[in-house]
Amino acid sequence: MIVRHVDEIKGTEREVTGDTNTWTSRRLLLRKDGMGFSFHETIIHAGTETLIWYKNHLEAVYCVGGEGEIEDLSDGKIHPISDGTMYALNGHEKHYLRAKTDLRMICVFTPALTGLEDHDADGVYPLIEDECA
């Protein structure tokens, strides 16, 4: 059994801030935990816009606080996000994530992240094969 509290993650290598400083992710479960998926609490910082394209991963996100929007770049549709909104990137959709206020998001990735990933210039997380991460 794995039991963790988010406060145990803060300030450790499992708390990652993106190079663009638009988000902070607290990675509660990673690939090395052996669950087959990773599980994160991610804060999207107020007033920011992040280009994201998970071409190597599927992601489901549940908002538990804040307000923002997601724009699907394949069709230009903009969907509001607030407490209680879920979205799933089942087609590897390239998108913008915009936060009006801090967004507190609960995220699940498959394949599981190692914890070393950060978005590249296209908004992509690389597919890291190293199991020792």
Automatic annotation (TrEMBL):
Q: Which reaction does it catalyse?
A: (2S)-4-acetamido-2-aminobutanoate = L-ectoine + H2O
Q: Which Gene3D superfamilies match?
A: Jelly Rolls
Main EC class the enzyme belongs to: lyase
Q: Look up the signal peptide feature and give its range.
A: none
**Which GO terms of the molecular function aspect are on file?**
ectoine synthase activity
Asked if the record carries the keyword Coiled coil, the reply is: no
Query: Which Pfam families does this one have?
Result: Ectoine_synth
Q: Tell me the pathway.
A: Amine and polyamine biosynthesis; ectoine biosynthesis; L-ectoine from L-aspartate 4-semialdehyde: step 3/3
What is one Gene Ontology biological process annotated in the Swiss-Prot or TrEMBL record?
ectoine biosynthetic process
UniProt-listed InterPro entries: Ectoine_synth, RmlC-like_jellyroll, RmlC_Cupin_sf
Q: What's the Enzyme Commission number for this chain?
A: 4.2.1.108
Q: Keywords in UniProt for this one?
A: Lyase
- UniProt KW Zinc keyword: no
What this chain does, per the entry, is described as: Catalyzes the circularization of gamma-N-acetyl-alpha,gamma-diaminobutyric acid (ADABA) to ectoine (1,4,5,6-tetrahydro-2-methyl-4-pyrimidine carboxylic acid), which is an excellent osmoprotectant.
Q: Which family does it belong to?
A: Belongs to the ectoine synthase family.
PANTHER family associated with the record: L-ECTOINE SYNTHASE (PTHR39289:SF1), PTHR39289
The protein's name in its UniProt record: L-ectoine synthase
Q: Which organism is it from?
A: Terasakiella brassicae
Tell me the lineage of the source organism.
Bacteria, Pseudomonadati, Pseudomonadota, Alphaproteobacteria, Rhodospirillales
